[in-house]
Amino acid sequence: MKRFLAVTLGILTAIGGFVDIGDLVANSETGARFGMRLAWVVVVGVIGICLYAEMSGRVAAVSGRPVFDLVRERLGARVALANLAGSYLVTLLTLSAEIGGVALAIELATSVHYLLWVPIAAFVLWVVLWKVKFEPMERVFGLAGLALVVFVVALIALDPPWAQLGQQVTSPVPPATEDWGTYGFFAVALFAAAMTPYEVFFFSSGGVEEKWTSRDLAISRVNVFVGFPLGGVLSLAVMGCAAVVYEPLQAQVDTLGQTALPVAMALGKLGLVVVILGFFAATFGAALETGLSAGYTVAQYFGWQWGKLVRPRQAARFHTVVLISVLLGVALLLTTADPIAITEYSLVFSAVALPLTYLPILIVANDRDYLGDEVNSPLTNVLGVTYLVIILVAAIAAVPLMILTGMGS
Amino acid sequence: MTNEVLRVDFDLLDRQIVDLDGHPVGKVDDVEFGTTADGRPFVAAILVGHHALGERIGGRLGRWMAAVARRLHTTGDPQPLRIPFERVAEIGSAIRLDVRHELLNTPALELWLRDNVIGRIPGASDAGQ
């Protein structure tokens, strides 16, 4: 019974923790402009993150080595340093976007301008990172993130023309109002939102922090293979709500309030309360993950003591990097750069950085020195290589599409 | 280890070093060779230090990293942490030493940040989580 509870709790945490500011922004923007015609990208992205999260979790459990250890061992100190610079900057940009998301969620609830909330949100974030234990931190925000299920309820309550939505899902071409350039740009953004690199940094480092062993493999797999796809359903519901409300009006979504509006229309004030809570939990939880991931990447490249298992003074360099990263994230927001724009840029650059993260995982997941008999099966390798090709295409296409379409506008 | 031959580039360099209890000590940033009486080379020690890493990487990037490491060092003349190869107990997914990390010199940057930044924040000495 206790084990059953642990598994259920893990799955629920994975569902609630799946969605972050990138998913919220990319899915609602896409729904408003393309209906459900890009829904397939979310499915492709979710399968990809399941595949690679499982691999990184397996490597962490069997060998005790997190992802960025492998990056340096397998790519060499020089290439890994370039990788570190890229991964750190992308994670920092994502951290900034998540803090902005927290502040925007509080603005929705209080009508007080988000910039006033940014320093407060960042301070509370840092205190949680400093004081709160790893597991409760993960649980509380993951479970609260489940409030986003309200998007599924709202979509059903809106009573959309299901046949029309279904038709859009099965016709993966741009609508008459859009061209292939913007279609490709949003496809890359959605894909990057599902496969953001920090997710595997965090997942594998968390596995090492929680001292996973081969015996924990089954639980980790269930969390990934059940939790992430259900999290993907939440993403699709966000897209669906925007598709139903905004696509017929040809209205664009460019604020977090517009992302929430369909829920308020369908479920009234109570729905709005729940959706704001969901936004807050999802972005705050992701801010914690990205803040830690920023520290993980640097500390693991240089081999420093990292993580929350030791006293902070025993991991002084790690905690300094985390602290500086939060401050840099705040500084970027305080230039009054639009958090939604920061999110969009973080998605584009995530797409560029994807191969740097996922190639070393695939290589090590085949190394018997690390994994013994737990190396990839041939099927996993076929899927892994297929995804690496997709990842590479997305990475190469990201910046040209961004320039060509002017951020998809 | 599945193979008999130890390859310095593949099995040693850039691997994580952990102490007896699994605490991270650093990476194998460089390796020191010695020669036996009959002239055969052997691995004498593994070296840990951002300065040593920068010098090994070389080029503009490496010089820049070594310069930053020198700048961040309190004495301005950083020496890498030298761990004699005899202290290596096991080479696997990490390189495990047969000593505790307390017995090794703590890197200067860690010490400085501990004393001047992180150690001054309330709760820095609270038990690990």
From TrEMBL, chain A:
The chain crosses the membrane at residues 40-61, 81-106, 112-129, 141-163, 183-203, 224-246, 258-279, 316-335, 347-365, 385-404. Keywords: Membrane, Transmembrane, Transmembrane helix, Transport. InterPro entries: NRAMP_fam (IPR001046). It comes from the Bacteria. It is found in: Membrane. It is a multi-pass membrane protein. It holds the Pfam family Nramp. This is Mn2+ and Fe2+ transporters of the NRAMP family. It comes from Lentzea flava. The lineage of its organism: Bacteria, Bacillati, Actinomycetota, Actinomycetes, Pseudonocardiales.
From TrEMBL, chain B:
It comes from the Bacteria. The lineage of its organism: Bacteria, Bacillati, Actinomycetota, Actinomycetes, Pseudonocardiales. This is PRC-barrel domain-containing protein.
